[in-house]
Design goal:
It contains ten helices and twelve strands. It has helices at residues 16-26, 63-69, 85-104, 120-132, 161-173, 194-199, 227-237, 257-268, 275-280, 300-306; strands at residues 6-9, 31-35, 70-73, 109-112, 137-143, 146-150, 156-159, 180-185, 205-211, 216-217, 223-224, 242-246. Helix 1 links the parallel strand 1 (6-9) and strand 2.
Length: 314
């Protein structure tokens, strides 16, 4: 069974070395997520200020640390589909500037902010950046469900249809680029329809974000997930994604380390893969070359593989 890597996202990072050391040594995380640029730095690349630095220096960490232990986060204020033409151009230039900086640092991936429903221009920018920087993975952040109003009982109703349609539109605009993946963020309220939740399991989920705010507190004072969140988490882990715990570093007396330890406990209780799942796992999300068993003489092993198809030979 593949090992699941867990990272942390504390928001603003005042000192890279201290945050990285705390995450790796104290919280036993595998990587950290840091903003590429300070969130308050709403710069305009069309009017650069040569006296002000763009962001922190690339010398604060070694190149091996940048490439293996850090994931960049694109600025939240970017609105690539804004109705204002001037602001949209400003966001486009800032987006490409941050992606170029991530490529210079040799980061393994960048985390994109949530996109609007009409993500046509965002899809164009992401597709262009993915083609130019094929060594960088782009993780598109999407909530598992969004509020759609109030149901008949007066409670808040949630649905994942709109979120999935936005992701599907963006994926098609990017022409199914292999370095553009889904970053699924768990929400406090999950959809009532179980089919909407299961639909995400058929997507290329590269990362699962679990905010510290959705955790409950058990009798011993430690964070824990609800039953539905535990079930969904175990189902998503079959796709072998990475996991990011996001929240304030002081949300618990042990910091985010308590949340990381609880997730590792859940991972240790995962049921073992069946023989059928172990056989199918190398073929997930890969197009297979079509074979002609009635026309060509194939190997015996190939016919045996055909017979393991649970749909055709059940």
């Amino acid at each position: 069974m593949a090992r699941i890597e867990i990272g942390t996202d504390c928001g603003v990072v005042p000192c890279m070395n201290e945050v990285l050391e705390r995450a790796l040594d104290q919280w036993h995380a595998g990587f950290i997520v840091v903003p590429l640029v300070h969130p308050r730095n709403r710069r305009d690349p069309r009017r650069p200020r040569p006296t002000e630095p763009f962001t922190r220096s690339d010398l604060v960490l070694h190149s091996a640390q940048w490439s293996a232990q850090v994931v960049g986060k694109v600025s939240e204020w970017l609105q690539l589909d804004s109705d204002c033409d001037d602001f949209r151009r400003q966001c486009e230039l800032a987006f490409h500037q941050e992606v170029a900086w991530a490529s210079h640092l040799s980061l393994q991936a960048v985390l994109l902010p949530p996109l609007s429903a009409e993500c046509v221009n965002a899809g164009r920018c992401i597709s262009q950046a993915a083609m130019t920087n094929q060594h960088v993975h782009f993780w598109v952040r999407m909530p598992v469900a969004a509020s759609v109003g109030v149901d008949e009982s007066g409670e808040a109703a949630t649905s994942s249809s709109g979120c999935w349609q936005s992701w599907n539109r963006l994926r098609c605009l990017c022409e199914h680029a292999v370095n553009v993946g889904l970053c699924l963020e768990l929400t406090a309220d999950l959809p009532q329809d179980e089919r909407e939740v299961l639909r995400w399991l058929g997507e290329p989920v590269r990362v699962v974000i679990i905010p510290a705010s959705i955790f409950l507190t058990n009798k011993k004072g430690f964070p824990a997930l609800s039953r539905r969140h535990q079930t969904l988490f175990v189902q998503l882990m079959r796709l072998s994604p990475r996991v990011i715990v996001s929240g304030r570093a002081d949300c618990h007396e042990e910091g985010l380390g308590a949340h990381v330890a609880y997730l590792r406990f859940l991972l240790s209780k995962r049921p073992a893969l069946t023989s059928q799942e172990r056989f199918e796992s190398p073929y997930y999300d890969y197009l297979q070359a079509p074979l002609q068993p009635l026309q060509d003489n194939l190997e015996s092993q190939t016919y045996e593989t055909f017979e393991k198809d649970p749909v055709k030979y059940k």
